[in-house]
Amino acid sequence: YVDAGEWNRVLEALRWATDYFIKCHISPNELYGQVGEFSTNSEHWGRPEDINSTRPAYKIDTEHPGSDLAGETAAALAATALVFKSEDKDYSELLLSHAEQLYDFANKHRGLYNDAIKGATEFYESTDYGDELTWAAAWLFKVSSKRYYLDEAEHYYMQFRLKERPNEFFYNKKVAGVQVLLAQLTKRQDYVEAGKAFCNFTVLNQQKTPKGLVYIDKIGTLCHAANVAFLCLQLADEGVNADLYQRFAKQQIDYMLGSSGRSYVVGYGEKYPTRPHHAASSCHMMPEPCTWTEFGLDRPNPQILYGALVSGPDENDFYQDKREDYVYNEVTLDYNAGFQSAVAGLRNLQLKGISLLR
């Protein structure tokens, strides 16, 4: 990001998100986790500025806990505190304070957030919280160096049986991320082997499309592939199967950027998605109206959603650029997270003079 001249924008984006999390964390044991109703929101197609329906807010607290949500928010704040340590010490300490409070809340008051916030189950169901507790503790150790957090992470790693090989790495299953992070923090061989088992299986044995994309799920196909690419690049940095994992990551990201015959990143390349399933970008500039009419129009979105990674193709590399079909054309924040991190990792290898063309 520094080499691209984007570092200040990275800091702005991080601060925007963590400022929001801080506002949602209104007391040590209270965290707002959802604004609006999924059922009501799904009835609206148009600009977010045009939404005029009631948008209730839902929280987790000691009576309605959500260890997964509180733990993941703690991890996000701790990781961002690490970034700001050398940029803004006071802000870093503020983030760490909230992260520690949220971790304590998640740890002492156990439960799944979608039991507390009922509407979340249909769209963002959480199946367990052990990985989030471990994830949060590991990140808190990384930023604070307090041995207590590492001890907690290692205890939960065993308690929740996180050494077993997962099949994916995404927002609801962070086990592979926990394995790699603990390998980085401790250099212990059992963590290294756990991460290696995940990467080896995905790289060597996981189903792939005819053109070579690793295929894990029909929803968020590219997201899953990019997440694995990023995570295995992290393990490669530890000297584990570096050549194999780096080549794999490059091949997966190249597929998304155009080696497959088309780009799956909006605004990038000669043949990219022009109709992402994204309401605001389907609208003309105000004051032109934007309704479900725009949803069904067979024309490119008037606003180019630069950089957005769409869900992607099916197991046979088939893809259709249709706004109505979210299976192929959905865009989300978590779809982009692993992708752009993997791109940054590959660029970092270039800057180090490591060629992946051999």
What does this structure look like?
- By secondary structure, this protein is mainly alpha-helical.
- The protein has helices spanning 7-24, 38-41, 67-84, 89-108, 113-116, 121-124, 130-144, 147-159, 175-186, 189-205, 221-236, 242-259, 292-296, 326-329, 333-351; strands spanning 31-35, 57-60.
- It folds into two domains: 1-162, Glycosyltransferase (Alpha/alpha barrel), CATH 1.50.10; 205-358, no CATH class.
- A two-stranded antiparallel ribbon has the order 1-2.
- α9 (175-186) crosses α10 (189-205), α10 crosses α11 (221-236) and α12 packs across α15 (333-351).
- Its EC number is 3.2.1.4.
- Residues 3-342 form the Glycoside hydrolase family domain.
Summarize the structure.
This protein has helices at 7-24, 38-41, 67-84, 89-108, 113-116, 121-124, 130-144, 147-159, 175-186, 189-205, 221-236, 242-259, 292-296, 326-329, 333-351; strands spanning 31-35, 57-60. The protein is an all-alpha fold and 358 residues long. A two-stranded antiparallel sheet has the order 1-2.
Question: How do the strands and helices of this protein lay out in sequence?
Answer:
Blueprint lengths: L6 H18 L6 E5 L2 H4 L15 E4 L6 H18 L4 H20 L4 H4 L4 H4 L5 H15 L2 H13 L15 H12 L2 H17 L15 H16 L5 H18 L32 H5 L29 H4 L3 H19 L7
Antiparallel strand pairs: 1-2
Helix pairs in contact: 1-3, 3-4, 3-7, 4-7, 7-8, 7-9, 9-10, 9-11, 10-11, 11-12, 11-15, 12-15
Largest sheet: 2 strands, antiparallel
Low confidence ranges:
none
Structural class: mainly alpha
Number of extended strands: 2
CATH architecture of the largest domain: Alpha/alpha barrel
CATH class of the largest domain: Mainly Alpha
Write down the overall mean pLDDT: 96
Percent range for β-strand residues? under 5%
The count of helical stretches stands at 15
The CATH topology annotation of the largest domain reads as Glycosyltransferase
For the record, the count of structural domains works out to 2
Side-by-side strand order of the widest sheet: 1-2
Percent range of helical residues: 40-55%
Enzyme class: hydrolase
Family: Belongs to the glycosyl hydrolase 9 (cellulase E) family.
Keywords: Carbohydrate metabolism, Cellulose degradation, Glycosidase, Hydrolase, Polysaccharide degradation
Catalytic activity: Endohydrolysis of (1->4)-beta-D-glucosidic linkages in cellulose, lichenin and cereal beta-D-glucans
